[in-house]
Write a structure and sequence with these properties.
Length: 471
């Protein structure tokens, strides 16, 4: 499973907003590692720099020094619509003259193909294959003159989920879709303002968290201060995987630290699926907090039986076949001195395709573990996501085709237990109706095209011969 994207926006005259945005994006690197970008603006215009790779690969002192202005927006990308290419890196600039806007997007638009074809027929051209450019052109196509009204017009026509940072040469906008499926928070910094995907980004640059941007709300920030344009939503559907996996442990959502929620999930697993064992081991890094909750509730000691190489997959050097054949051992290394002869409870956040878990269990048993009892924080994932999580297709989802005993046998565990949906909601501490649980239940918060492809816009654009510049 791969994370969503990260967005940041800063309005702060007198500050080095490009540098602040860099460090905020650095704190949000976990939400996307394919490309990164920052755009800045002042009365003279917009400067932008994007490239493939991590934040620290894309930016240096020379690049940041050229990004001048008092407004900035930034983006870390994991592709959920459009392929991983430089033309799809964000932020993107759309429009000309006074109509120019710069936009960064976290989410996925399920009616993007229809809107793309409609806008193309009206003469709008596209330089990328992302639904982000569809959003931008839809805003520009609105008959209204005021940009807030234009954004609201687009929101009424978009079907899907999104948190947006939008910038003109004199204003910053933060936008959250009516379902609130992707997080977006608001903070204050030295007389200026920041919007970001998670509160940990605010902490890293010394900003004070004010509140979350409400579902359906537009925030507008300029020299006249901050203005809010709320629109009440009938339904909320925050992605439950923000709690399970995506957001950082030190981020706060709905007033609660994620670390506390994940420990509660582990405690729930211990209640629902107890087992006689000697050690509890969490798969690093995402399941460590849940493992500590399981250990505390069960009374079984917590141990570090697996060490993760945190930089695997974050290098531009391809491993040779001999290294690639090591599989999971390239990412995780077990400690035989800890595991030898022990009955182990192995806690992980989820099983999606079931490609990594069998290798991890095999590593533990080869290192001397007598038994491995798998415990999973997320309930069985039986349905794909169409809202910005590049998870898997229906055919690839292990739990869509197999029972729990069949999955247990396939992964080589001595036992397997998933946290129930009810146990998950209890651990989070909010009503069930606040969340999107569609990947567990199949109950999507809006109609979706069941076999929608993340490269669909790319294929449509190529067929139009010339509307898309893919490099």
């Amino acid at each position: 499973m791969h994370e969503s994207c990260a967005v940041v926006g800063i309005y702060s005259p007198g500050e080095d907003v490009a540098r602040l945005t860099f460090f905020a994006l650095f704190a949000l690197q976990h939400r996307g590692q394919e490309s990164s970008g920052i755009a800045t603006a002042d009365s003279d215009g917009i400067q932008i720099h994007t490239n493939m790779g991590l934040v620290t690969h894309v930016f240096n002192e020379d690049v940041l020094s050229r990004l001048t202005g008092h407004i900035a927006i930034g983006h870390n990308r994991y592709s959920t619509s459009g392929s991983s290419q430089i033309c799809n890196a964000q932020p993107i600039v759309v429009g000309t003259g006074a109509e120019t806007i710069t936009i960064a997007h976290n989410g996925n638009i399920v009616n993007a193909k229809h809107l793309y074809e409609e806008l193309s027929a009206q003469g709008y051209t596209f330089k990328s294959s992302t639904d982000t450019e569809v959003i931008a052109n839809l805003i520009l196509s609105a008959p209204d003159k005021d940009l807030v009204d234009k954004i609201r017009y687009a929101m009424h026509r978009l079907q899907g989920v999104y948190s947006l940072a939008i910038m003109t040469k004199d204003r910053l906008f933060g936008v959250r879709d009516p379902l609130g499926m992707r997080p977006l928070c608001l903070g204050k910094i030295n007389g200026g303002w920041i919007i970001a995907s998670e509160t940990c980004a605010l902490d890293h640059i010394g900003a004070n968290f004010i509140r979350e941007v409400e579902p359906g709300e537009i925030i507008s920030i300029g020299k006249d201060g901050l203005k809010s344009y709320p629109e009440k939503s009938d339904k909320e559907a925050l992605c439950i995987f923000e709690y399970i996996y995506f957001a950082r442990l030190d981020s706060v959502i709905n007033g609660r630290l994620l670390y506390q929620s994940r420990r509660a999930m582990g405690a729930g697993l211990a209640e629902e699926h107890p087992v006689d064992a000697d050690l509890v081991v969490g798969v690093p890094d995402s399941a460590i907090a849940a493992a500590s909750g399981y250990a505390q509730k069960s009374g079984i000691p917590l141990a570090e039986g697996l060490v993760k190489n945190r930089y695997v997959g974050r290098t531009f050097i391809e491993p040779d076949q001999r290294i690639r054949d090591l599989g999971a051992k390239l990412k995780y290394n077990p400690m035989p001195q800890v595991l030898e002869g022990k009955r182990v409870v192995l806690v992980d956040d989820s099983i999606v395709r079931g490609t990594t878990t069998p290798h991890v269990i095999k590593l533990l048993k080869k290192a001397g573990a007598k038994e491995v009892h798998m415990r999973i924080v997320a309930p069985p994932i039986r349905y794909p996501c169409f809202f910005g999580v590049d998870m898997a297709t229906y055919r690839e989802l292990l739990a869509a085709k197999k029972t729990v005993p069949e999955i247990r046998d396939l992964i080589g565990a001595d036992s397997l237990g998933y946290l129930s949906v009810e146990g998950l909601i209890k651990a989070v501490g909010l009503p069930k109706d606040n969340f999107c649980l569609a990947c567990f239940t199949g109950d999507y918060p809006m109609p979706v095209q069941i076999e929608m492809d993340k490269l669909e816009l790319e294929s449509v654009a190529v067929s139009k011969q010339g509307n898309l510049d893919i490099k």
